[in-house]
Amino acid sequence: MNKCIQVIDTFDPKRTTVDAYVTDAEVFKDKRIGDVEQKFIHQVFYGCNRYQKFLKLFVTSFMYKCPTSAIRSDQTLYMVLGYLLFFRLGELGVSEFREFFSSGLGTVSALLALLQYALSQEDLEKWVKVEWCKVYDVGYIEDEIIGKLQTYSDELRPLVEEVEFKTTGVCTMEKKTKTAPKPFNLTQPRPRLIPEPEVISREVKALPVPAMVNRTTLAEVEAEKRQRLEDEKTRVLEKYPATHHFNLETANRRDGTEIEELTRKVDAERMTECTFKPKAAKKYAPPTEEAVVKQNVAAVLREDALLRQKQAREAEILKNYESELHDASDYNRWQQDMKQKDHVEEETRVRKRMVEMQLAREGAIEAMESEVRKKNIRAQHQRVELDEELEWKQEEYKVDLQNKQLLVAETQEERINARIKEAEVLKGRAEHAEEIRKEKEAEFERKRREDEQEMEKRKDLIRQIRALEKVPVERFKKFDAAEPPCQGLLEEMSLAELRERILIETSKRDKETEDKRERQLEKKVEKQNEFAEKAATLAKIREQAREQQESKHAAVKKRNIDIEEAKARHREQSIMEVAEKIQLKKQQRKEEENKLKRELKEISTKRQFLSANAEMVEAKAHGEQHAGLDREAHERQRITLVESRRRTEIKSKDNVIRRSNQQANADGYKAMQEAVNDRVRRAKAADSALKEEILRCNSTARKMTAEMGQTAHNKYISRVNNARSASPAPRGGTGTSRMMVSA
User: Are residue 446 and residue 530 in the same domain, yes or no?
Assistant: First the structure.
């Protein structure tokens, strides 16, 4: 495993290829590695390079999920273990794979987290499956990677338990049996017989309008309500007179506003001396003369460069005009007119859109108010249904509460078993913790003794170093500045001569600097003169540009005023159109409201007539409910028959497909047998022909040897003939090949 990690870490794909690296790597030249180990290293190295993207995604996701247990320096180890686990576990075997976890590489907690992460289908699908599917096929990942590894989960469970016990001291892989809820064996109630519907008479008889409807008016009812309210107020005042109120001292306190006013006055008196009131600012007087801006060298050069660019563009335009006899002025003018036209059309469209939005808003408000009125009518009917459903749910809640009370009583009886088991587990953990504590104390004592010995050695070494430093050493040498070093080098000189030469070179350099300064001053004067000429030229050009810009601004301002006046006229026209349409909508809405009031009045009258035969309507509704139940029963029967017919068809199709697949497999197997038999027959015929050809060649060679006699004294031929005569006749393909070599 160490050799595999070393090979993968030292491989650089930018410098060499995989095959060349295997041939030249120092790891494979080690004589202590056998053929089996070398082949294993080859396969692991090739496999990790082949599935590099797959393994890197796996290791990265594992380290991101388990940052506390995974170590970043062991990434190559995790990559090798992942390759063996996903691709070579079937060939390697669980027993051989267990040895890698006992080799001491990596921490035990990291190896445990790696195993649990690789064997958890939920973690793989959550953390790394999406990234794998970007590189590989989804079916390959689900079937050949995750699904294939899940088939080894039972064989790998002992290994996981062993590593987990080494890490934590306990094993949690045991599956806990969960309590499976079972329904009560209750007697199923018999279906209720549906009574035959009663014959409902369709005759409608209206009762006379009660006399009390026309006896009172809404004004009288409102007056009675106000009178009752006044009587109730008078009764409450008589019941609670002012003499019964509590007299508290808090009522005599100052309110908050008075305290704030006093605080404000005190602060104002205290801050009078600290208040600074500056003099009023002078009135702004706009300047009458234009300000003179002094430009620096950079500004002048920048403006001169812009001027040169503008002149170059104008020269290019004139050159194009001379060669092509036209310029882009007409196109620019047409483009400006089209933009102005598009702008006007956009303004018109926006105004039109505003009118439409205003009309839509009015319609939406009216529709919302109409919908609110309809909802109020439906809400009254739903309240009655809701009361009935609440009563039915209350009954169900009582039955459910009784069942839950029985379940709670049974659970409380079984609760003591969990407490007993929990006490046993806690006792075992305490004993295990005591053993670990004793082992740690012994380990700490051994470590303390080793640290004391190491400290004594360090102190002894420090004392020796200090003793060596206290020995006096002579570290001075007399120096003569006029004496040459006499080292045998070219151009040797003493320190005094060196100083003299430095003075000569310094004076020479100062003279050169002075000459250079004079030349620079002359260039500076020339540049200043050139700069003054440029500044004067630019001032003239700036003045011309200012005059042109002022005339242009005046034209633009006039055009903007004309545009604003046109916009104002269009806005007024749009406002008038909106006002007319809104007025029309209001009239239509008022007519709809009057129509709605008439309809509501008619509905209330009809409701009074229909209230007389409420029982008739209820019976009719009961009959319609029974009819609906019959329709639902017929529909369920029809759906059941359709589903049964569909399942039967699917089953018959599956049988036909299965028989056809079996027949195809049998035909393929038979064809394969015939092909193999044919190939064997042809191979046997070729082998027999080869043997006959070899025998014929041997007999021919012997005859030629006997006739010519040239090789009779050849020692190699004699030795071969003697061996052939002494050994028995060979059989099979191997013997045939040997005969060919001897011939």
Answer: no
